[in-house]
Specification:
By secondary structure, the chain is of the alpha/beta class. The protein has a single domain, classed as 3-Layer(aba) Sandwich (Rossmann fold), CATH 3.40.50.10140. The chain is 44% helix and 16% strand. It is built from 7 helices and 5 strands, in the order βααβαβαβαααβ. It has helices spanning 25-28, 32-42, 59-68, 85-100, 115-120, 124-134, 140-154, and strands spanning 17-22, 47-48, 70-77, 105-111, 159-161. Helix 3 (59-68) runs parallel beside helix 4 (85-100) and helix 4 (85-100) packs across helix 7 (140-154). 32% of the residues are buried.
């Protein structure tokens, strides 16, 4: 008699981190994000933040692995998040993981930014995309993927924070 447990491997692998935090360092590293990270740590929530990058490691493969190895991603949208190609690349990978892995959740935090600006790419997000279009190393397909990722993430229920506490 054949065992049903051997028919297909589980798509869910054990996660190494509880939360991956995606943020624009220049906007929030030494205020909102550092306070949030510390609060999560105090509550024994294992977070991955770029402080955990090992010296000598290649940055993108390490970040990509950390995203895949996390149960949840907190995406902190701030005024200049859309101007960072690193942030947009992380966001696209986060949303890819959330679509392909039923155990990966995404929680957007809109820090001093209107969620509709993220969703519609207006305000600072419009300016950022106009600047990205001028760069030779970013093609239209990449911009479209990032734009869809911003829209998808901004359509998720999240937190809107307009203060520094």
């Amino acid at each position: 008699m054949a065992s049903s447990s051997s028919s297909a491997p589980s798509s869910q692998s054990p996660k190494k981190y509880d939360v991956f935090i995606s943020f624009r360092g220049e906007d929030t590293r030494f205020n909102f994000t550092s306070h949030l990270h510390e609060a999560l740590r105090r509550n024994q929530i294992d977070t991955y933040i770029d402080y955990r990058l090992e010296k000598g490691d290649e940055v993108w493969p390490s970040l990509e692995k950390a995203i895949k190895d996390s149960t949840m991603s907190l995406v902190i949208f701030s005024e200049n998040y859309g101007s960072s190609t690193w942030c947009l690349k992380e966001l696209a990978k986060i949303l890819e993981c959330s679509k392909n892995d039923q155990g990966h959740f995404v929680m957007p935090v809109f820090y001093k930014v209107d969620p509709s600006h993220v969703r519609k790419r207006s305000g600072s997000y419009q300016k950022a995309f106009e600047e990205h279009k001028l760069k030779r190393n970013i093609n239209e397909e990449q911009l479209n993927m990032w734009g869809e990722a911003l829209t998808d993430a901004a359509n998720l229920s999240g937190w809107h924070c307009s203060f520094d506490r």
